[in-house]
Every structure is written in structure tokens, then in C-alpha cells.
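quick one, 92 residues, struct below
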Amino acid sequence: MRILGAVLLVIILGFLGWGIYGFIVENQSLEEKVAELETKTAALKEDITESESEIKYFSDEANLLKELKSQFNYREPGEKLIIVIPATSTNE
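---
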């Protein structure tokens, strides 16, 4: 009778140990997913902050016109484009 009780106890402890091991493995997997999602969330928050900054910058008409001129060589009627070429120095 004692042997049967001991065997039954070992079997129960084995199932409990296997269940606990399964929970530990699942917990580690979930912690890795949480860390990955936190990294993605931080990157997205940074993107949002950058986008909000750009929206604020381009909301000002003067900044919009400045970017239009610099990126697309836009000129207003009567405005002339001047290209400044730096002087080259020759060291002899």
C-alpha cells in the first residue's frame, strides 16, 4: 500500500512539475513578445513625435514656401535665382 501511495505521489508530482514547466516556458515566450511590442511602441511613438513636429513646421506658410523653393527650385513671379559658387583656393 505504501508503494502504491508513493508511486501515485510521484506521478502526481510529475504532472504538476510538467504543468509548471509549461507555464514557465509560456511565460518566457510572452515576456519576449512584450519586450518586442514595447520596442515597436517606442519606435512608433518616436515616429508620431517626428510627424507632429513636421506637421507643425509645414503648417507655417513661410516654412512651406521655403521648402518648396529649396526642394523644387520654385520661384515666385519676378524672383530671380542666384547660385553662389564658393571660390576655390589653390595652395602652391
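DSSP finds two helices and no strands in the chain.
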